[in-house]
Amino acid sequence: MQGAGSRSGRVRLARPCENSSVGIQTQLRRAISVFRFVALGYPVLLGALAFETLVRPVEAALLVVVLAAWTGAVSHRYRHRGYEPKALYADLAVTAAAIAASSWALATDGVPISVGPWLAGSVLAWAAAWGRRSGAIAGAVVAAFGMVFRGGVHESTVNEAALLVLTGFVCGHLVRLGVKAEQRMREAAERNAAARERERLARDIHDSVLQVLALVQRRGTEIGGEAAELGRLAGRQEEALRALIRSESYRHPLDGQRDLRELVGRHEGADVTVAAPATPVLLPAETARQFAAAVASAVDNVREHCPASTRVWLLLEDDAEAVTVSVRDDGPGIAPGRLAEAAAEGRLGVAQSIEGRIRELGGTAAVTSAPGEGTEVEMRVPRLTAEAGGAGGDARRGR
């Protein structure tokens, strides 16, 4: 049956047991139901015109009643439960049985009358549920029964076979295109809504938080002493917030990827030097976000625990095998065993915010430090793991 994965570039059609697709497929179910009832007019009209020559007129009338009842029952089931596998298989089986019954009941002087367009109903249902390949297969099955019960291979049955197979294939292809277009429209609407929300948040931040931070920085500088240090920290946070607001990488990309280089570049400032490749370092959006959060935690640790004069160097490297970010500072360093002590005390900044995030992405984080020699945090995520994590990371985190 036809499905799709993100890597193959094919759109994922709804499985028959799913009821989540409420757009184009809901409309198709209704259209196919209308078509099937209208198509019943074909055997009714032919039977009425040739009623006097029918070999079994009573059985022919009963057959039409049964077809109408089945059409109503299966259309109702599709409408309320979606395309369930057992209903689809039953529909195809009833269609095959209708071909056999019509060759016996709808016959004039030994020549069977086809139930015509009604046969395409189950083929269209298969195509709408499972795609073009399944639609073509269903059409071939119905056509094969037609050849068996209506005199073998001749012009009439060959034409009918071609129409049924093409109908299933084309309908399935159009459904595929329609679902893909519907997904793109939904994603575009979500991006627009997210962009509007970001603009609203940016206005709120500018009108409240940024102004307060600017005031704290200015007043702290005027007062001096410990207040000046508080003002300096407020100024850093103000710069970081402004960079976040104006960063283009904060926008949701069309292809679901983020540029880690731009996310890391937000930290560049008077005391932070960033070195990165000249070309974008693209990762799945969630992977890039988690990686950038670990880097931000490492930079924040320097600002929280080191003197104001401490400088930070941030190096981003990208090769065919892995993406590596190193955060190095010239601060006082970390005493041996201090990180283990902090973790035992419940202070999990490095253990969770840095090592935990990188480990969850399938990578490694190493902290190298010595008293008086500064600290270096190296975070490395393999390329294949990072790309796979973009598709499955949310599921691993239980989202």
TrEMBL record:
Histidine kinase/HSP90-like ATPase domain residues: 290-383
Gene Ontology molecular functions: kinase activity
Stretches assigned to the DUF5931 domain: 22-183
TM stretches of this protein: 34-51, 57-75, 87-105, 111-129, 136-153, 159-179
Keywords: Kinase, Membrane, Transferase, Transmembrane, Transmembrane helix, Two-component regulatory system
Keyword flag Metal-binding: no
One of the protein's GO biological processes: phosphorelay signal transduction system
NCBIfam families assigned to the protein according to its UniProt record, in alphabetical order: HK_morpho_MacS
Protein name per the record: Sensor histidine kinase
